Amino acid sequence: MRRSTRVTVAASVVSLLLFGSLAACSGDSDGTASPSASSDTEDAAASEEPTAADVAALEGVEVAGDAGAEPTLTFTQPLTVSVPTARVTSEGTGADLAEGQILTMNYIAVSGADGSTQGTTYGAAADHITLGDASLITALNTVLTGQKVGTRILLAIPGTAATADAAETPTTVMAVEVSAAKDIPNRAEGEAVAPVAGLPTVALGDDGAPTITAATGEAPTALVVQPLIKGAGAAVTAGQTVTFQYTGALWDGTVFDSSWENGAPFTTSIGTGAVIPGWDEGLVGQTVGSQVLLVVPPDKGYGETEQGSIPANSTLVFVVDILDAS
């Protein structure tokens, strides 16, 4: 459901942290997307151990600056690593970090080739990740596991070449600071809403994961927004960062993506064009804790271009649990 183009240059850098579901749901700014799983190359890179040279290169990076302020990174250029490599530069003193928490973080990313800034959240909106999310680079999950709020880390991510004749992009060096951690529920919680005839039906597993059964008949041509569970939280507003569980299927019931299967909720900005129009229009105004059935016609989804396992001009069905908004 994502678009690949972020609202700011700084926010675009965080996509480097992603292998798997979030990166795979990304697309072009014109609405194209690929919901398929991560590539074999990405999976291999995510699982390889850093070499002694990788570790030494990151150890050579000096970080200067007070906590809460944008740091300065100094290192011998060019800096390269063969696989994602991370280390703690300053241990935090706050609450323990736990798998499944939403972490608020600030970072600056610089080019390993010349030290130029590629993006920063300092002075702008902080970013968020879910600790333990299987779509994150393994090195990031590993280095943050067992740490506390306030921890500062360095993460180096190798450059890649899109094609054999393309120039290789430089290694990216990121200084990341965790400023907050928040526990959130794993599923929608609220008052059940009676289903509406003619729409796909939803059955929930013991853990809350939905199973979608296709409806008969023609797909609607207008966006359908049908709450299944009404949460007691505040209404979601445009511009908020919202955390969701979701399952996405074609009108015939074929599932193409699911945060439940991916292993972690999905966090994104809503109402800003970061996701498809059907999500922006359908989820703004819904309350936290709700579960919402969205039937998204092609013009509110991915349009006329085939997207991996999503055929062109597809009507999409989503069951979305709204877990948190801030």
UniProtKB/TrEMBL annotation:
EC number: 5.2.1.8
PPIase FKBP-type domain span: 239-326
Signal peptide feature range: 1-26
Alphabetical UniProt keywords: Isomerase, Rotamase, Signal
Domain of life: Bacteria
UniProt keyword GTP-binding, yes or no: no
Catalytic reaction(s) noted: [protein]-peptidylproline (omega=180) = [protein]-peptidylproline (omega=0)
Name of protein: peptidylprolyl isomerase
The species this protein was found in: Pengzhenrongella sicca
